[in-house]
Amino acid sequence: TDSTRYIKIWTDPLESYRHDGKWNTNAYRLDVGSAIALTVSENNVKIYGIQIGLATAAQYLRGIYVFTGLFDTCDIEIGYCIVRDTGGNFNCEGIKNYNVGSSSVIKVYNTLVYGFSNSGSYGVRFSTTNLTVYVYNVTVYDCGYGFYQSDAVYVVKNCLAQSCTDGFSGTFDAASDYNCSDISGDAPGTNSVTGSVTFVDE
């Protein structure tokens, strides 16, 4: 693969099998039991419009797990997805990376992650050196850690953390801004705010 010959895993927004912005049992979904739902172990992968559900009380489950290896430079995009957990066990993650190579870039945008409610679980977790992450327009709800940063260059913009034990955990890149958390002083960025939002259907 390369930047013009990439793997695309998607649902077509013009077809009825893509979700309509909330979990939809009539649309395509990848529901798994005690397993990692989707492991990305190739470079240049785009994942668009997939519903991913974890449903059992097993530990170490992941919705989307980027694991391309230390010797590969990866370019991964995740957009318009819904990742949820209804099991509520320890050390589970909605979106996570491990062992990506130097100068790797991961982009996550227009995505909803929720239900990773155990205090030791994570919504969107990136924690590898040599990795730059751009997370834009992402909502994380009812998670132990909402957005979690360790080692990676992690930019969050226009992101929302609600009903999490720790909404934004770690030191985020200085370019991060316009975020919102219901925990005081939590959201990174000069123009970020503290507030509790109202959902149409929480």
Describe this structure as you would to a colleague.
- With 202 residues, the protein is an all-beta fold.
- The chain has strands at residues 7-10, 29-32, 38-40, 45-48, 51-54, 62-66, 75-79, 82-85, 93-97, 104-114, 122-126, 131-141, 145-149, 153-157, 160-162, 166-169, 180-181, 193-194.
- Strands 1, 2, 4, 5, 7, 8, 10, 12, 14, 15, 17 and 18 form a twelve-stranded parallel sheet that branches.
- The chain is globular and about 45 Å long.
- The termini are far apart.
Features:
202 residues; mainly beta; 12-stranded parallel sheet; 6-stranded parallel sheet; globular
- Mean pLDDT comes to 93
Instruction: Enumerate how many helices there are, as a single number.
Output: 0
Rough shape? globular
β-strand number: 18
Radius of gyration: 16 Å
Q: What profile does the largest beta sheet have? A: 12 strands, parallel
Low-confidence stretches: none
- End-to-end separation in angstroms reads 40 Å
Helix content: under 10%
Given helix and strand content, the structural type is mainly beta
Task: Compile the SSE list and pairings.
Blueprint: E1 7-10, E2 29-32, E3 38-40, E4 45-48, E5 51-54, E6 62-66, E7 75-79, E8 82-85, E9 93-97, E10 104-114, E11 122-126, E12 131-141, E13 145-149, E14 153-157, E15 160-162, E16 166-169, E17 180-181, E18 193-194
Parallel strand pairs: 1-4, 2-5, 3-6, 4-7, 5-8, 6-9, 7-10, 8-10, 9-11, 10-12, 11-13, 12-14, 12-15, 13-16, 15-17, 17-18
